[in-house]
């Protein structure tokens, strides 16, 4: 398996009961690359993203993160919990519904995993956390509790929290779908800044103009199959399938 | 000499009984809390035979009158060759019995714990134990504090049952004075006052903890 990819997905399949949500999906993400996954709801795009850090377990196929296989060990057996946690720690995930830990203030949300998973010292983790809060424009909210923040602020904290793991890849699962329209922009701006800084990202989104602006590669899923994979200009201007043309018509 | 004068002269007996009650209560409720947390952890994850047995044990305890458990530990265990001191039998019975109640209180809250927070923890590389201690348990304890307060009062009152296995606690003091001088009303009124005072103090403390939670935006998260 190529070691120079950030994420390498090989012939992934997954069913829920008897519905096939992913069918032989393969995808490679190079370091520094931004890949957006588009598709109608139920097309399998969130499932694909959640397989990357093993929140969903695929039935067949393999996933490597920075050359390391997730979920299955070298002997081909299911990974033990500790080993799985170690690989997962190399991915950063941002959820649609933020999923901050409400009993911890913003700073502690961000330092929690670096200190208690990676074993960083508190001081080091807090210094890094403050830099990240600065990056997402929330340096004044370090002591605030999540319950007092707006949706856009919560999502920016969630992004900082994921970045604090210094992950090989950032995974975004519809990061703006739960936000009021006027709060979408502030989150998308942060993600765009990250792409400019060279972060590797896989993003599931419904924001078409954002996908066009931020992506190096656009992947379109339909009924669990990748039916288009192209540079954004090609994908949006000259899609090769009727399915994508129809989809884009409905989203403009 | 009025009945109240008699009781005043016997104040040392009340005080000794009260201290004994508070020791039993403090020790057993702390142990019960730890047992409840530990049981909740054991119930984490996919169903298994072990977890099912634990649930049956918890339910069995909850459905057992506390008096029976105290009897069994003190009078029943010796037939199996285990003889417990009355004081320790009482503490043990209270700890296990209320530990099961705590487990059930926490379990109810755990059932509605947001799955998204768990997924976030998994995605950030948390293992099950660390996630439980750092993220799940603190929130569950904060959320269930009214029920915890209720359970504290319940457990305090259950210490009174220990008089029947010869523990010299508060109710035993009242019992012995009322027997000696035949002044049951006054003696028991004094004891009720003690139980009320401690209960009210606990309720106030739990309320203060609630304010602490509200300041952190937890109650309207």
TrEMBL record, chain A:
- Molecular function terms from GO: ABC-type amino acid transporter activity; ATP binding; ATP hydrolysis activity
Q: Which SMART domains match?
A: AAA
Query: Which residue ranges does the record assign to the ABC transporter domain?
Result: 7-248
Q: Name one Pfam family in it.
A: ABC_tran
Query: Where is this protein found?
Result: Cell inner membrane
Task: Give a GO cellular-component term.
Answer: plasma membrane
Q: How does it sit in the membrane?
A: Peripheral membrane protein
Q: What is its main location?
A: membrane
Which UniProt keywords are listed?
Amino-acid transport, ATP-binding, Cell membrane, Membrane, Nucleotide-binding, Transport
Sorted alphabetically, which PROSITE patterns does this protein's record hold?
ABC_TRANSPORTER_1, ABC_TRANSPORTER_2
User: What does the sequence similarity comment in the record state about its family?
Assistant: Belongs to the ABC transporter superfamily.
- According to UniProt, the name of this protein is Amino acid ABC transporter ATP-binding protein (PAAT family)
Q: Which species is the source of this protein?
A: Kushneria indalinina DSM 14324
UniProtKB/TrEMBL annotation, chain B:
The UniProt record lists the keyword Cell membrane: yes
Q: Which domain of life is it from?
A: Bacteria
Residues annotated as transmembrane: 20-42, 54-74, 86-106, 187-206
Topology with regard to the membrane? Answer: Multi-pass membrane protein
Q: Which GO molecular function annotation, any one, does this entry have? A: transmembrane transporter activity
What region holds the ABC transmembrane type-1 domain?
A: 18-206
One family name in Pfam for this protein: BPD_transp_1
A Gene Ontology cellular component where this protein is annotated is: ATP-binding cassette (ABC) transporter complex
Q: Which UniProt keywords apply?
A: Amino-acid transport, Cell membrane, Membrane, Transmembrane, Transmembrane helix, Transport
Coiled-coil portions: none
Instruction: Report if keyword Transmembrane helix is assigned.
Output: yes
Cited NCBIfam families: HEQRo_perm_3TM
Q: Which family does it belong to?
A: Belongs to the binding-protein-dependent transport system permease family. HisMQ subfamily.
Q: What is this protein called?
A: Amino acid ABC transporter membrane protein 2 (PAAT family)
Q: Which organism is it from?
A: Kushneria indalinina DSM 14324
């Amino acid at each position: 398996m190529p070691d120079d990819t950030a994420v390498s997905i090989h012939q992934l399949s997954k069913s829920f009961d008897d519905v096939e949500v992913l069918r032989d999906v393969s995808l490679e993400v190079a370091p520094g690359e931004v890949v957006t996954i588009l598709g109608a709801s139920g097309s399998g795009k969130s499932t694909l993203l959640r397989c990357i850090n093993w929140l969903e377990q695929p039935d067949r196929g393999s996933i490597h993160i920075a050359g390391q296989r997730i979920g299955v060990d070298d002997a081909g057996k299911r990974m033990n919990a500790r080993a799985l946690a170690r690989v997962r720690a190399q991915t950063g995930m941002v959820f649609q519904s933020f999923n901050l830990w409400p009993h911890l203030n913003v700073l502690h949300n961000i330092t929690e995993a670096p200190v208690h998973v990676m074993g960083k010292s508190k001081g080091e983790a807090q210094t890094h956390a403050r830099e990240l809060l600065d990056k997402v424009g929330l340096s004044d909210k370090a002591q605030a509790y999540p319950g007092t923040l707006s949706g856009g602020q919560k999502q920016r904290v969630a992004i900082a929290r994921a970045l604090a793991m210094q992950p090989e890849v950032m995974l975004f699962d519809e990061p703006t779908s739960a936000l009021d329209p006027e709060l979408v922009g502030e989150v998308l701006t942060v993600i765009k800044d990250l792409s400019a800084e060279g972060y590797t990202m896989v993003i599931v989104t419904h924001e078409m103009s954002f996908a066009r602006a931020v992506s190096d590669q656009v992947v379109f899923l339909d009924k669990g199959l990748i039916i288009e994979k192209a540079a954004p200009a090609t994908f949006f201007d000259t899609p090769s399938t009727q399915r994508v043309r129809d989809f884009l018509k409905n989203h403009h | 000499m009025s009945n109240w004068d008699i009781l005043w002269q016997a104040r040392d007996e009340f005080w000794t009984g009260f201290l004994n009650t508070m020791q039993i209560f403090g020790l057993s409720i702390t142990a019960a809390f730890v047992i409840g947390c530990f049981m909740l952890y054991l119930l984490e994850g996919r169903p298994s035979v072990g977890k099912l047995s634990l649930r049956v044990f918890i339910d069995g305890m909850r459905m057992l009158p506390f008096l029976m458990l105290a009897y069994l530990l003190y009078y029943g265990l010796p037939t199996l060759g285990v003889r417990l001191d009355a004081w320790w039998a009482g503490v043990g019975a209270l700890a296990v019995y209320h530990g099961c109640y705590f487990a059930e209180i926490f379990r109810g809250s755990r059932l509605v714990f947001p799955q998204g927070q768990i997924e976030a923890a998994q995605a950030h590389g948390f293992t099950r134990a660390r996630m439980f201690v750092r993220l799940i348990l603190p929130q569950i304890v904060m959320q269930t504090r009214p029920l915890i307060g209720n359970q504290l009062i319940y457990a305090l009152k259950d210490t009174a049952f220990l008089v029947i296995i010869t523990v010299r606690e508060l109710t035993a003091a009242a019992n012995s004075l009322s027997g000696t001088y035949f002044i049951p009303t006054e003696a028991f009124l004094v004891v009720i006052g003690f139980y009320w005072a401690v209960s009210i103090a606990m309720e106030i403390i739990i309320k203060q903890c609630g304010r602490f939670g509200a300041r952190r935006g937890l109650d309207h998260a």
